[in-house]
């Protein structure tokens, strides 16, 4: 009987998690605030206020994806738009409203983007870590391999490794 109850509760929890993911971005709506910390190999190099606003746009099915860095909410505003491409496949785009639009993928409770800009490879992960909490993480490094290994035989593939020079992390709490 205990096993059946345990299986029941686990299946309910899994259904809740799936429903939450399927409700993206609606279940993520809100204004989140926190502190962004930037780390390199020498340790923490910077700390600044950060906000992320995910709000419905009245005139479309899209959402805001406004990022605000620093104290100056005007100068620090990045007014992006979250566009649903194919929710069933977890495919979205962040439209920067300046000719740049980049795909993003909902994978479980994580919204993930990977892109190269000006010789740098960035991986951005926004993870819903609680009902009212998001963790924002950006890994950045040069888009050129620091080493290549393998490939000596057909069974062993060639593997290129890429360096990571910094990580930015912010734990953001929903305030509205």
* CATH architecture descriptor text: Beta Barrel
Order of helices and strands: HEEEEEEEEEEEE
Sheet having the most strands = 10 strands, antiparallel, barrel
The CATH class assignment is Mainly Beta
Helix vs. strand class:
mainly beta
Strand content: over 45%
Cα end-to-end separation: 42 Å
User: What's the pLDDT, averaged over the residues?
Assistant: 90
* Helicity, as a percent range: 10-25%
Uncertain parts: 1-22
Q: Tell me how many strands there are.
A: 12
Judging from the principal axes of the Cα atoms, what is the shape? Answer: globular
What strand line-up does the widest sheet have?
1-2-3-4-5-6-7-8-9-12
Characterize the structure shown.
It is a single chain. With 176 residues, the chain is mainly β. The chain contains 1 helix and 12 strands; from the N terminus they run H-E-E-E-E-E-E-E-E-E-E-E-E. Strands 1-2-3-4-5-6-7-8-9-12 form a 10-stranded antiparallel barrel. Strands 10-11 form a two-stranded antiparallel ribbon. The N and C termini lie far apart (42 Å).
Summarize the structure.
The chain is 12% helix and 57% strand.
Record the SSE blueprint.
Layout: H1 2-22, E1 30-40, E2 43-54, E3 63-69, E4 77-86, E5 91-95, E6 101-107, E7 110-117, E8 120-130, E9 133-142, E10 145-150, E11 158-162, E12 166-174
Antiparallel strand pairs: 1-2, 1-12, 2-3, 3-4, 4-5, 5-6, 6-7, 7-8, 8-9, 9-12, 10-11
């Amino acid at each position: 009987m205990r096993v059946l109850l345990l299986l029941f509760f686990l299946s309910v929890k899994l259904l809740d998690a799936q429903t939450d993911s399927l409700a993206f971005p609606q279940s993520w709506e809100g204004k989140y605030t926190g502190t962004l910390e930037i780390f390199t190999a020498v340790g923490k190099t910077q700390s600044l206020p950060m906000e992320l606003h995910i709000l419905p746009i009245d005139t479309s099915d899209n959402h805001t994806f406004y990022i605000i860095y620093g104290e100056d909410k005007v100068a620090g505003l990045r007014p992006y738009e979250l566009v649903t491409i194919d929710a069933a496949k977890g495919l979205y785009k962040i439209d920067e409203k300046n000719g740049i639009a980049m795909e993003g993928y909902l994978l479980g409770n994580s919204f993930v983007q990977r892109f190269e800009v000006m010789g740098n490879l960035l991986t951005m992960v926004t993870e819903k870590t609680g009902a009212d909490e998001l963790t924002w993480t950006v890994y950045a490094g040069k888009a050129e391999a620091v080493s290549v290994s393998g490939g000596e035989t057909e069974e062993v593939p060639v593997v290129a490794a890429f360096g990571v020079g910094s990580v930015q992390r912010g734990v953001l709490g929903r305030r509205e």
